[in-house]
From TrEMBL:
It is a single-pass type II membrane protein. This is Beta-1,4-N-acetylgalactosaminyltransferase. Residues 194-267 form the Galactosyltransferase C-terminal domain. Its cofactor is Mn(2+). The lineage of its organism: Eukaryota, Metazoa, Ecdysozoa, Arthropoda, Hexapoda.
């Protein structure tokens, strides 16, 4: 009798473990957490527009069907290597395919400070990734060189202004510690702002909460202008909640691609301390966003350098 009870307990424990594995599997959870644009509808949801000063001598337009349906996963080890020879990346980190006319121009904007080794790996990986997508793009690295607390949102504003002056219709704000894993995650803007990094390894590829809007995001330049960018007051804070609140106030919804396409690898690093006045700023977003943002942006431009792989904007805030 005792032997039977013991076997029954083992069976129940085994069933419990199996059910738990199924329930906690990242793919199952990710698909249940948010609505997304299906692969079949991605092309219809993209904003087809190139930079105002961009021209191509190619005869035919680039085709994006195979890119969007590419289900391969790029190895993270690419970040440890070097770019292949003959990459045709222009000074300032600008690239466009020669064999076809791209339909999209994207400015990738990276707020940055004190992560030189991580930045190197990011640049190598991102160029290898983006060159596969047949888009026209340029990478901007906006570095805060003063000793004040890091102000990510203000650096994003500065990068956006530089990119919009260069005529880029699509902005991608990107953390330097994030690498996209799926080539099908096209770095182009959708009609609605897109949370690109909705499935990150750190969170077991599960979206922690629906209002999360950070890491890697895309937004049309016109929409970013419409909401007056982001607050310039987030010293020591991320500021992405401010961006979400501004979009919400303007009744602009956000969108995402499916979890598998939206997978990213996040490098681990010491977490920065968040300051206490974050909630105070967020509580007054609606009252202050018309006065605090792109129209109130003030900073000192220390230097702008066109490096082989990126445009380096150094600023004192």
């Amino acid at each position: 009798m005792r032997h039977y009870v013991f076997k029954k307990k083992i069976l129940y424990c085994g069933l419990f473990v199996i059910i738990l594995i199924i329930l906690l599997h990242p793919d199952r959870n990710a698909r249940g957490t948010y609505e997304f644009i299906t692969k079949e509808n991605i092309l219809n949801n993209l904003l087809k527009e190139t930079a105002s000063n961009f021209s191509s001598r190619a005869i035919s337009d680039c085709d994006y069907y195979d890119i969007i349906n590419d289900e391969t996963t790029l190895p993270i080890t690419i970040a440890e290597g070097d770019l292949i020879e003959g990459h045709r990346i222009r000074d300032g980190g600008e690239y466009a395919p020669l064999d076809c006319r791209p339909k999209f121009s994207t400015a990738v904007i990276v707020p940055y400070r004190d992560r030189a080794e991580q930045l190197r790996g990011f640049l190598v990986y991102m160029h290898m990734f983006l060159r596969r997508q047949h888009i026209h793009y340029r990478i901007y690295v906006v570095e805060q060189v003063d000793s004040r607390p890091f102000n990510k949102a203000k650096l994003m504003n500065i990068g956006a202004v530089a990119a919009m002056r260069a005529g880029y219709p699509c902005l991608v704000f990107h953390n330097v510690d994030l690498l996209p894993l799926k080539p099908g995650n096209l770095y182009a803007c959708t009609k609605l702002p897109r949370h690109m990094s909705s499935s990150i390894n750190k969170f077991r590829f599960v979206l922690p909460y629906l209002k999360l809007f950070g890491g890697a995001i895309s937004i049309a330049s016109k929409q970013f202008n419409e909401i007056n960018g982001m607050s310039n007051e987030y010293f020591g804070l991320n500021g992405e909640d401010d961006l979400f609140s501004r979009l919400e106030s303007h009744k602009i919804k956000l969108t995402r691609f499916e979890p598998l396409t939206s997978r990213y690898y996040m490098f681990s690093y010491p977490k920065q301390e968040q300051r206490q006045h974050r909630n105070n700023i967020l509580n007054h977003v609606k009252q202050t966003m018309s006065m605090d943002g792109l129209n109130s942006l003030k900073y000192t431009e220390v230097a702008v350098v066109l490096h082989p792989l990126f445009t380096h904007i150094m600023v004192d805030l």
